[in-house]
Amino acid sequence: MKKRWLTTKEAEKYSNLCFKTLKKRYLEGLISAKKIGNKWLWDRESIDAFLGEDSLKEELLLHEVK
């Protein structure tokens, strides 16, 4: 079973997004995270959902352009 919460380093590697982008998406309400002390933990399921939606949006835009 995959762990649900990822460290920032794990989330960056998993999503191929940098911390700045992850935090921006968190502030926009698109990715769930929690900050404990000075460390961030990122919700893998919300990253998956965000990346899935992002891929779908890109695919739809490509079809509109054609």
Automatic annotation (TrEMBL):
InterPro entries: HTH_17. It comes from the Bacteria. Residues 5-52 form the Helix-turn-helix domain. This is Helix-turn-helix domain-containing protein. It comes from Balnearium lithotrophicum. The lineage of its organism: Bacteria, Pseudomonadati, Aquificota, Aquificia, Desulfurobacteriales.
